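re: that chain from earlier
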Amino acid sequence: MSPSATGVSNGASNGASKDVPKSKASRFNPEFTQHVLDIMGPKTTERNRVVLSSLIRHLHDFSREVELSIDEWMAGVHFVNAVGRIYAESGQTRNEAHRISDILGLETLVDEIAHKIVSDTDTDPTSSAILGPFWSPNAPFRENGSTIIQDPAPGGRVCLMHGVISDLVTGKPIKGAVFDIWQASSNGKYDFQDPQNQTPNNLRGKFTTGEDGKYWFYCYHPTAYSLPTDGPSYQLLTMMDRHPMRPAHIHIMVTHPDYKGCTTQLYPKNDPWLATDTVFAVKDDLVVDFKPLKGDDKAELELDYNVILAPGNYTGKAF
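^ sequence. v structure.
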């Protein structure tokens, strides 16, 4: 009988190791996972082999550890199907797969792996946070000093937001940086979630810094909101006895061709959901203080927030 018929690989194909480590005694076939890995074809790229091999090992180990039942496995299959169905039926606007990555902490972890830099000075670059599913590449460029509020909303508290974008190494202001902002309205919905009340690109805008590295514009004090409570992601939250709330936040993406960009979120310091953000995106340096503003008839609040970018070739401390 051939190795493939027994489920046991000879380990000689596809560059796999011939020395398969022996597992402790188990009622499960100790060589099955290695066989699944060994039948990857020779055209598998090196990176795909690394990522998929690790995924398969962890998935098999998880299944053995919890002794996954057939009913539980099939429930997972139906769950994945439901994630795809809601995306298709929404016209590809409701990304439940992205949202599930968020509530499992996966996007925040991947974001940290991709962007975390520890400076070799006393100052670190501004922390990143997850992009989330609501960014749009179509936000218009606006003049500094203008507003992103196209459709005034009941209860919206107007805020003058301003700051300086500077170089981590030199401390000097950065000219020509693009400050991209997007936020939910006072009802907790983004523009394309709320076409009855918001026109496209409401509460979105891009601003370019001048010689002094400054940006300034009018926006709203952010509003906390709930993730949808009628789909697979909420079903998963319910299974874990967790709430669906995100603390109030403003999204920003700051870029410049000579610097490492920063995509992040800013949170009012008095928000009650900071400690239990359902997507785990809150970091200490992203918690900010909205202060009362006097002498400006356009706004009642002010947020002064400076952004520090690392040069494109900066690596920071090695670990």
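The chain has seven helices and twelve strands.
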